[in-house]
Amino acid sequence: MINIPKGTKDVLPFESYKWHYVERIARETADLYCLNEIRTPTFEHTELFLRGVGDTTDIVNKEMYTFLDKGERSITLKPEGTAGVARSFIENGLFNNAMPLKMYYITPVFRYENPQKGRLREHHQFGVEFFGASSFEADAEIIMLALSLLRRLGLDELTLHLNSIGCGKCRREYNKALFDYLKSHIDGMCKTCQDRLERNPMRILDCKEERCKEICRSAPRTLDYLCDDCRAHFEGLKRCLDTCGVKYVVDPDIVRGLDYYTGTVFEIVSTRIGSQGTVCGGGRYNNLVEELGGQSLPAVGFGMGMERLLMVMENANAVIPKPKPVKVYFAAMGEQPRLAAFGLVQKLRENGVFAEFDHMERSFKAQFKYANKIFAEYVAILGDDELAAGAAKIKCMADGFETSVKLDELVDYFAD
Ligand code: ATP
Ligand code: MG
Does 359 have pLDDT greater than 80? Predict the structure, then answer.
């Protein structure tokens, strides 16, 4: 038997309605906030992520699915959603539109990780990106969008963690202080972090190794190094959230695992589950578009892990509406009645009625059992006698009520 690749998951026919529900509410929330969907390819040139995400990040160093295609080009399956959107924005000259450009996507994301609960090699993200706005209100709005979506999905016990990691200006002084601190602790750090020190000391703050985490606990914090503009921006964001009655914790430990972030960074964490409780992560990335060859253009966004979302919803016993059941199931016996039933089922479907046919040539009894199993609301019985009389016997499965309905009146009978 051939098994599913490690770290991937099937969505089975009986559970896909949960995905449809989450996707529908995500799209509806995006509509309310006046966003349009953008769809970009599942794979891109590797170079995009090297430059966009950063070649000292875990994602680029360890987690990318990279291969040479038949034309010897280095191709990578998306390890995140933002870089592709930024590429498309530049390539399609989307900066010629009125700003801001508010976009969302639902996309598979591939990371070669150690699979565990809530950590997959292929997962899916609902992502949001605002291009062109530098205001703190834009940051606040995407956070409100994320929280609003989570609330609509029935989630509670969520904590919003906020931080600012500063712009290039504040980062220079901060990086120096951080470098000096980390340098004095270099012997206690893991090999990867020792290598990172010269190239990108901030990445060390994101290391998952306990000994590095311990060292980072006393490291200098970005919030203490913010320039006046970054400080004012962060205060403005907090005021917006206060106005909306949103609670948050300022969490200096959040630095995010991708290089493109500047200023605001945030995570939304479910307090119900442990380390995989982060359902949403995002922030501002004012340099990404320029770094990818576009003009200098501010942007802010987030990615929300859909598998984690569903996990947390399950844990919170959030209600997911079941799909509409079959309205009428045809139990037909005999060659002519089956033929008539087949035609009637198609006609009902064309008129918007969820109708179902017996494909297994079961006995009447077995067909009734099946109708029960699929929660059909009605069964239409069609044997030789009913066909001769030109009317089907209709049984309501909830109360057992039976009646006879002429075959050419079935559509009227069942149409809502
Ligand atoms: P983590 O710290 O949990 O590794 P991350 O910082 O790598 O998360 P992001 O790159 O910000 O995650 O991705 C946004 C969201 O996507 C995360 O908050 C999480 O909900 C989800 N996510 C990230 N990696 C995975 C994965 N391997 N499997 C399932 N969901 C994931
Ligand atoms: Mg990660």
Answer: yes
